[in-house]
Amino acid sequence: MSTLHPTLQPMYETVLRRNPGEVEFHQAAHEVLESLRPVVDKRPEFVDASIIERICEPERQIIFRVPWVDDSGKVRINRGFRVEFNSALGPYKGGLRFHPSVYLGIVKFLGFEQIFKNALTSMPIGGGKGGSDFDPKGRSDGEIMRFCQSFMTELYRHLGEYTDVPAGDIGVGGREIGYLFGQYKRITNRYEAGVLTGKGLSWGGSQVRTEATGYGTVFFVHEMLRARKTDFDGKKVVVSGSGNVAIYAAEKVAQLGGTVIALSDSGGYIVQEGGIDLDAVKELKEVRRGRISEYAEKRDARFVADGCIWDVPCDIALPCATQNELDESGAGALVKNGCIIVAEGANMPTTPEALRVLRRGGIEFAPGKAANAGGVATSALEMQQNASRDTWTFEYAEERLHDIMQGIYGTCAMTAEEYGMPGDYVAGANIAGFIRVADAMLALGVI
Ligand code: NAP
Hints:
This is Glutamate dehydrogenase. By secondary structure, this protein is α/β, with parallel strands linked by helices. Helices cover 48% and strands 15% of the residues. It has helices at residues 9-18, 23-35, 37-42, 44-48, 51-55, 104-120, 141-155, 174-188, 209-227, 244-255, 278-287, 293-297, 328-336, 352-360, 368-371, 374-387, 394-418, 425-444; strands spanning 60-69, 75-86, 92-98, 126-132, 164-167, 236-240, 259-265, 268-271, 302-304, 316-319, 341-343, 364-366. It is globular. The mean pLDDT is 97. NADP nicotinamide-adenine-dinucleotide phosphate (NAP) is lined by residues 168-171, 213, 241-246, 265-267, 320-322, 345-347, 372, 375. NADP nicotinamide-adenine-dinucleotide phosphate (NAP) binds at residues 168-171, 213, 241-246, 265-267, 320-322, 345-347, 372, 375.
């Protein structure tokens, strides 16, 4: 890892000491602190008020037992988490992840990223994240429902439309949000629609929330292409994952004239040079909850179980699965094959070593906290509709999302220029997000 500004190094060491073994959180904190080098000199008042130390320490961390009964009658125990990281700009906002890899370090890294991402949207939302080490794979609907009900039976006391507003993430989609909201409503006896986002369209959800993260990532890339005086037309795009973010990123790429030639899941990847049939992928993943290998069984597509999706030659790569999925060798393959843009639909999918390789190879890079902010921005639009008892059309909600993504792109590009690093969207996103939160924290005093 590169060395930090001498003022920032001891702050990073405190993060290491206070959060032992939480390597993903260390990685996320280092990346932000690295970008703050020019801010320390330009805005010494942030250092004087210990804003950076305060931002690295969550306001509240909740860890709880989640007992539930499986279909065979056996009692199972999982661990639940909610890290309420920063509420300077509004109620804590950020998704819930259900995946066996979840532990405090993952939740903290995601919550930390969320603070700056949410600030970049310019909406009034703070940062938080939560989840459980529960593995939904292979579980029946009844088991998922009982788990969600038990999870919410503890979590509800920490939530509220003015306090903390979760949404989905890996393993938490519309079905899970429904069960979680049902239990919240039952316990509190309140139809408090604004307490969760990602709700179904018939009971308080917003048009475009399902599509928002993927669509937003592609709108961001579209702005990068426009700056290069080109567009998606004829471009080959590789998208990792085949979950919510990946599917809708792929859909928007196709709508804008690009061709998505590869998708994946944790079992491997598929390649179809003529373009992947997205309706078939939606049916496979959203309805049948099947494996991506099944797609290749009936089509003119190749399934690769033991390989790296980044070896597939492309113009644009969109990592949309999970953290640290694009490593040094994957980045090397993208450079070698002439890729021009990498944009993160997932949170922190690119390792620091991979990022260095991409930069050296001249690939333009969009960090997740800017490129995938469309999801949380549309969640804030859902909260806005809930508060005014209003429902917007698909077209209007998509237009709002498009405007927000253009705004985030503009903010990142302008801030990077202002701080002497034109084209460095990582620095632009980290600095712009940080300053918005830091200014609010200064105004609110020592709390
Ligand atoms: P999802 O619907 O659960 O899909 C996740 C996809 O990634 C699946 O195809 C999954 O494959 C794959 N995946 C997950 N963990 C993996 C691992 N360890 N190794 C290989 N593949 C893995 O989740 P999602 O909502 O699309 O989220 C994807 C990413 O976007 C995450 O980083 C999330 O934090 C980020 N994000 C999501 C949103 C949102 O609105 N949903 C917003 C901002 C950022 P399997 O099914 O085989 O596990």
